[in-house]
Amino acid sequence: MKVRFFLGFFVFLITAGQLLAQYSETIVSDRPGQSNSPNTVGKMVLQFQSGLQFDGASDENYKQNVFSWPTLIRFGITDKIELQTLWGYQNSKAEVLNFEFKDKGINLSSFGLRFNIFEETEKAPALGFEFNYKTKMLSKDFKPDHPSSKFNIMAAKTLTDQLSLTANLGADFDGNSNSHDGFYTLNLVLSVNEALSVFFENYGYFNGDYFDTYFDFGAGYVLNNNLQLDVLGGFGYNDNLFQYFVSGGISYRITKWRKE
Known about the structure:
Layout: H1 2-16, E1 46-58, E2 62-76, E3 81-96, E4 99-118, E5 126-134, E6 148-158, E7 163-173, E8 180-191, E9 196-206, E10 211-224, E11 227-238, E12 241-254
Antiparallel strand pairs: 1-2, 1-12, 2-3, 3-4, 4-5, 5-6, 6-7, 7-8, 8-9, 9-10, 10-11, 11-12
C-alpha cells in the first residue's frame, strides 16, 4: 500500500511539473528572512544562497555566542519542482554559571524537494510544499541519534504593487526523540524600487510545552538579474532569555542551462 502511494505521488509530481509555471527573470531568493517561497528557481536553474550569521543569547546564569555559515543549494528539475541540499558550519561557546562548553563543526546536512502546487492568481495565493530529509552526516558535537525530517507548507500573495506577504507553517523533527516542534513565519516585504526591498517578519517555534516568538527585519539588494546581497537582524525574549542575531549573505544563480 505504501509503495503504491509513493509511486502515485511521484507520478503526480512529475505530471504536475509539466504544467505552466512562472519563471522570474530576476533572482528570487529565500534570503533574507526565515520564510521560504512557494515558488521554485525554475527548470535547469542552479541557485546558491549563503551567509554568515552571529547569534547571541543571555540571561542571569547563561550566555552563548554562535557563529554559523549555512548554505542552501537549489536546482530546478522543472519549473514546478526543485531539488535542494542544505549544509552548515557552526562554532559556538556557551557559559553556564562557571562552566564553559564549546561546539564546532558541520551542524546542518539535509536533502530535500520543493514543489510549487499553485501559482498565484488574482484571488488566491501561490502555494508550495517542501520536504527535507535531515541526515546524520554531521560533526560529533551535533550528530543526532537517527535521521529525521522537516515539512513545510508555504504561501505567498501580492497585496499591492509594492507589498507582498509570505507565510510558512510546518513541523521539524529533531532526530533524538519522536517529538517534533511546529514552526511558523509571517514575512511582509516592501519593494522600494526594482533593486531594493525591505522586510519585517515574525516567526516562532512551538509544541505542547512552549511557544517562542521572534522578530527580524532587513533588506535585499539585487545587483543584476542573477545576484542579490542581503543584510538582516533579529531578536526574541522568551522565558527570561534574550536572543538576537545579525547576518549578511549572498544569493547567486546560474541560468546558462535553461532553455525557454
